[in-house]
Amino acid sequence: MLESKATMAGWLLKARSRCRFSLSSALHHPRFIFFFSHVAEREHVHTSTLTKPSFIDPTAAVHPDALIGQGVSIGPFCSVSSSAKLGNGCRLYPGSHVSGRTELGDNCTLMTGAVVGDDYPGCTVIGSNNSIGYHAVIGVKCQDMKHKPEDECFLEIGDNNDIREHTSIHRSSKSTFRTVIGNGNLIMGSCHIAHDCKIGDNNIFANNTLLAGHVEVEDYVHTGGGTAVHQFCHLGSYSFLGGGSVLTQDVPKYVMVAGERAELRGLNLVGLTRCGFSTAEVYHFLNLVGLNCIFITTKQIFWVMFQIRNLRTAYRKIFMSFDANAGSLEERIAEVVLFVFAYFFRELVRYLVSSLGWISHGKLILQELHEELGHVPAVRAMLQSIRNSIAENRRGICRIRHWNVS
């Protein structure tokens, strides 16, 4: 009897080992893993983050009242205040700190030593997908001597910004002001953005760029290393600031400036070309005159003829006029407007007559174009930028460099 039971037990163990469909083998079967991996890939892009539990290192000091999203990772020796709010997927590397009323959007990263927020009145709001570098200080009290400790101050940062190591960005100086950073900016190491600055989108600030209080920067502005900008200055879109420049006045759109006391050095043609600026502008012009069906080669001719050439002509007539009777800056701007309109008319007639044979329709097209030329963005935007800079409450534009032609 004992031998028969032993034989039966041995047979069962042997059969179990040969079983191909046990639970363990099924779960680890390649087809099972392959199937569920593809199911997971079909889920929403944030599913893995939302289902992943948050990790808080035991040495981190996280207040119980802090709002922590899903999939958040808080490393050793970090601190999170009671009023802080961390979005889903945020990562705090060791030794980073979130203080005061601070909101971090989804998928933000704080590198080691980064400090975000302050315990002073006010708040810091940061959007999604931002990276804050090593030992950067973001959203702390401003350095304005007129600031009152009881005033609330604010900082707002958009999405997809890369803020590198040792950068400092301060809150506003008053409750009625805001320090604002847009989207998609690259702020390199050791930059400083002071109180009440307003930064647009897609700007690149090289290392040690210093912006004083109330500076306004539009979009697609590039600064060289060691650039310093005086309070209340305005930097127009697509402008370029050479390395080591010191700016005490405004920079119009589309131009380059450089020098210890920055001077205008011409149009930022390379920057405009890299941004695809002229192509978009010429398509707008072609829409005005109804030439959408023309081949790309003709569009490229218009791109050169109506954009780069006009901007160069406008720049030379305004800033490089050596005629003593040229008049004031405002008079030169008005002259440029008339010159550009006349140039458009002349070149358009030449093109229509020689290439398309639209002689009978020429007058009608020119009449319609004359009504719409005020909407051509390139030159109009540059002229308006200059007018704004010479207004009474502005600092004027950078002085003009007169090259020695002797």
TrEMBL record:
<feature type="domain" description="UDP N-acetylglucosamine O-acyltransferase C-terminal">
    <location>
        <begin position="250"/>
        <end position="282"/>
    </location>
</feature>
<dbReference type="InterPro" id="IPR029098">
    <property type="entry name" value="Acetyltransf_C"/>
</dbReference>
<dbReference type="Pfam" id="PF13720">
    <property type="entry name" value="Acetyltransf_11"/>
</dbReference>
<dbReference type="InterPro" id="IPR010137">
    <property type="entry name" value="Lipid_A_LpxA"/>
</dbReference>
<dbReference type="GO" id="GO:0009245">
    <property type="term" value="P:lipid A biosynthetic process"/>
</dbReference>
<keyword id="KW-0443">Lipid metabolism</keyword>
<dbReference type="InterPro" id="IPR037157">
    <property type="entry name" value="Acetyltransf_C_sf"/>
</dbReference>
<dbReference type="GO" id="GO:0008780">
    <property type="term" value="F:acyl-[acyl-carrier-protein]-UDP-N-acetylglucosamine O-acyltransferase activity"/>
</dbReference>
<keyword id="KW-0808">Transferase</keyword>
<dbReference type="InterPro" id="IPR011004">
    <property type="entry name" value="Trimer_LpxA-like_sf"/>
</dbReference>
<keyword id="KW-0441">Lipid A biosynthesis</keyword>
<dbReference type="Pfam" id="PF00132">
    <property type="entry name" value="Hexapep"/>
</dbReference>
<dbReference type="GO" id="GO:0016020">
    <property type="term" value="C:membrane"/>
</dbReference>
<keyword id="KW-0012">Acyltransferase</keyword>
<dbReference type="InterPro" id="IPR001451">
    <property type="entry name" value="Hexapep"/>
</dbReference>
<protein>
    <recommendedName>
        <fullName>UDP N-acetylglucosamine O-acyltransferase C-terminal domain-containing protein</fullName>
    </recommendedName>
</protein>
<keyword id="KW-0444">Lipid biosynthesis</keyword>
